Each structure stands twice: as C-alpha cells, then as structure tokens.
Amino acid sequence: MARRTRWGTVTAANASTLNDGAAAVLLMTAEAAKRLQVKPLARIVDAAVAPIDFPIAPAYAVPKILSAAGLKKEDIAMWEINEAFSVVVLANMKMLGIDPQKVNIHGGAVSLGHPIGILVHLVHALTQGQFGLAGICNGGGGASAVLIQKL
C-alpha cells in the first residue's frame, strides 16, 4: 500500500531493497594511525545530526555541517544522499540547491541497495584533497551528515 505525502508516493517499487554486501570503516586518531603505520584513506572533517521530518532531514543537517567546517556547498566534489525512497534525493537536492551531476553519481540505494556504506563509497570515489558529503535520513525523523576529505 502506497503512502501519499506532499513529496510523493513511497512504494516497494521505488524503495531500496535488502541486498548482500559489506562495507567497513576503521576509525582511529591521527596519532594511532602514525603509531600503527597505517596510511589513512580519508579523514572525517565534521559530523552533524538534525531531527526533522525524515524525508527532508538531510537538508537541515547538511548546512550545519558545512557551516561548522567553514565550507560551502560548491566546495563539495561529490554528494551521497541515502535514497531509502527515491523522493528523498530529489527533495533534498531541490531544498539544498545542489548540482544533480554531483549526487549519487554511481547510483543510489534504489539501484544498488541500502547504502549504509555510502561513506566507504565516497572514500574510494573521491580524488586526493576533494571533499565528499554523505547524508542520510533516519527512521523517527532524524538525519545524519558526515563530511570527509580524501587524503
């Protein structure tokens, strides 16, 4: 049964599916990486969380994280926005005014599966020095955004 909202209709046909796959993030301080002689792939620059109407929640979390990092949306080379439902990406692109050519450029959750690994995708898709931003809406009306820079 479809749920009709002001942003559109969510059905099994336009929601992400359960898929097999894996992604992992190993977090450590810069000091630990040096001590262990590990070469980091990226650094987490900042993170933000904003509870709000869940489909558009990333549009509220993203400005907070960009402001905290002293960046503008034009500084972001690649965006990953979780599309548990296809309307999420479209609504957030419109609200944030971001270039669609920079969003989910290798496909999103509807085509690839639920991307809790979107951060790992950014680490591998960005080039040295570029910033990438991953945003996700959570159940219960929350949102998370993580800003990384490829090292």
UniProtKB/TrEMBL annotation:
Q: Quote the InterPro entries the UniProt record gives.
A: Thiolase-like, Thiolase_AS, Thiolase_C, Thiolase_N
Q: Name one GO molecular function term.
A: acetyl-CoA C-acetyltransferase activity
Annotated ranges, domain Thiolase N-terminal: 8-30
- Organism's domain of life? Eukaryota
The Thiolase C-terminal domain, residue ranges: 40-150
Q: Which UniProt keywords apply?
A: Acyltransferase, Transferase, Transit peptide
Gene Ontology terms: biological process: fatty acid beta-oxidation
Q: Which GO terms describe its cellular component?
A: mitochondrion
The record's listing under PANTHER family reads: ACETYL-COA ACETYLTRANSFERASE, MITOCHONDRIAL (PTHR18919:SF156), ACETYL-COA C-ACYLTRANSFERASE (PTHR18919)
Family membership, please give it.
Answer: Belongs to the thiolase-like superfamily. Thiolase family.
Name-wise, this protein is Uncharacterized protein
